[in-house]
Amino acid sequence: SNKPFEWRFAFPEVLDNNGDFLGFDLVIGNPPYIRQEEIKHLKPHLQKAFSIYKGTSDIYTYFFEQGYKILKPKALLSFITSNKYTRAGYGEPLRAFILANTQILHYIDLNGLKIFDSATVDTSIITFTKTPPSLESSFDYLAPTQPSLDTDELHAQPLHQSSLSKDSFIFQDQANQALKAKIESLGTPLKEWDISINYGIKTGYNEAFIIDSAKREEILNNCKDKSEKTRTSKLIKKMLRGRDIKRYSYEWAGLWLINTHNGYQDSKGNKIPPIDIKDYPTLKAYLDTYEPNLSKRSDKGVTPYNLRHCAYLEEFEKEKIIWKVIGNNLNFALENQKITLNNACYILTSNTENLKYLVAILNSKIVWHYAYETNMNKMGVGDMQLGAQNLNIIPIPKIDSANKALSDEIISLVEQILDSKAKDPTKDTKELESHIDSLVYKLYHLTDDEIKIIEGK
To answer: Which among 158, 252, 348, 427 is least buried, having the fewest CB atoms inside 10 angstroms?
Structure first.
């Protein structure tokens, strides 16, 4: 505020007769949402002042501890904030603080509801008391589907506070908790598989380095001879964006990446030097039209013409599972045409694992349910984020002698889907996908009641 005040004078009732601080009966508010990148100058002070400090925390998290500090014992705090602290890595110290020091009374999950016109973050309301929790502590969980908070239309679900963890606040009833435990017992987290997960190429200046087919042809036609044209053509790679990736397929939008890489070490241990722009005079002339922005960008290589260092460039040459990082409908596809991707995407590669099997499980309803209910970061209104950290903990059954026949059947269905999509990316393959879902249910030994939970029935 630009009008600070001394609250001890404004609220003398929070002091006793000797002027000692007693605390407030209620702290209620909507803490400011300011991203951590914008408060770098405050971080040294925040680190000294708050036990929940984490360098990547947005500023609203510190209001929880400050609000707690100025409460009377057994008094109430109620905040409406971003809900990211319940799942994001930066929220772990805050989650631990809340679980150790408070009794949660209510948690209202407003995910997907636009509460504030000027904000695009998903929000929640939490109410707790300044009282250490007991083993029996429980709270009411509400997840309204409409902006109205009319109590006659809301149905609270009682949950035990002990069911929450500092690792993540997962709001599930006993049936869902049992289902989660079963899925985890039958699967192996992806981080324990022989796979690599990497994000797409970051250019630092997409306007210059990502071009359409017409611009590519113009650049190639301006090359002075066949040798330069051949070199330049090899350097310009097909590129996909997150929005191009569909379920089991993708639709290339005619975009290309100018891959003036910064050098890397190949799979045989050979050091590949950075691209020397002097060998590509026509490409240099094109990139020069974007100065001084090329030089000003922070994400660059040894020269403004080079992309930032990327140690895993060869992974884009392999068969890979691809998906977009953020969206309200995250889909996985298999790509084997050596296409690169932008940084709105991730890729999964492996030299030993069966990617057709993995893409089937990742596209299945059961994995979608697990990811959504347990670890998928939710951001923006209705959007979700599935990065490497989220994907790594998804439990998937390894192929073994006991499930090989089932796995082979799943892989065969994936091959049928891929054949159909290769001929027509818009081909409806829902019947085959539904068959895969039924086989994946068998893979995890789900009961009819558990399948109903997955399918929301």
So the answer is: 158
Neighbours of 267 (CB within 10 A): 10
Please tell me the pTM assigned to this model.
Answer: 0.77
Return the structure tokens found at 306.
Answer: 């080079």
pLDDT for residue 377? 62
Structure tokens at 325: 């990082």
Q: Which helix (H) or strand (E) holds 74?
A: strand 71-82
Residue-wise burial string across 155-192, b where 16 or more C-beta atoms lie within 10 A, e elsewhere: eeeebebeebeeebbbbbeeebeebbebbeebbeebee
CA distance 361 to 363: 5
What is the helix, strand, coil percentage profile of the chain, to 5?
40, 20, 40
Of 63, 19, 55, the closest CA to residue 39 belongs to 55
- List, in order of start, the domains of the chain with CATH numbers: 7-171 (3.40.50.150), 177-195+350-457 (no CATH), 199-318 (no CATH)
pLDDT tens profile 3-39: 777 777 778 888 888 888 889 999 999 999 888 888 8
Own/partner long-range contacts of 232-239 (Cβ < 8 Å, ≥24 apart):
232/280, 232/282, 232/283, 235/259, 235/260, 235/275, 235/280, 235/283, 236/211, 237/316, 237/338, 237/339, 237/340, 238/337, 238/338, 238/339, 238/340, 239/201, 239/210, 239/339, 239/340, 239/341, 239/342
Q: Which helix (H) or strand (E) holds 214?
A: helix 213-221
Q: Cα angle vertex 367, ends 365, 368, to 5°?
A: 60
Residue type, 14: V
For residue 456, which of 228, 145, 196 has the smallest C-alpha distance?
Answer: 145
What is d(CA 37, CA 57) in angstroms, rounded to the nearest whole number? 9
What is the Cα–Cα distance from 457 to 451, expressed in whole angstroms? 9
CA distance 107 to 109: 6
DSSP 276-325: -GGG-HHHHHHHHTTTTHHHH-SS--SSTTSPPP-TTGGGGGS-EEEEES
Helices 226-235, 281-288: inter-axial angle, 10-degree rounding: 60
Angle between helices 60-69 and 92-101 (to 10 degrees): 20
The residues with which 108 forms a beta bridge, in sequence order, are 125, 142
**Dist CA 215 CA 90 (whole Å):** 42
CB 325 within 8 A of CB 384: no
CA end-to-end span of the chain: 49
| Half-sphere CA count of 135, side-chain side, radius 13 A | 0
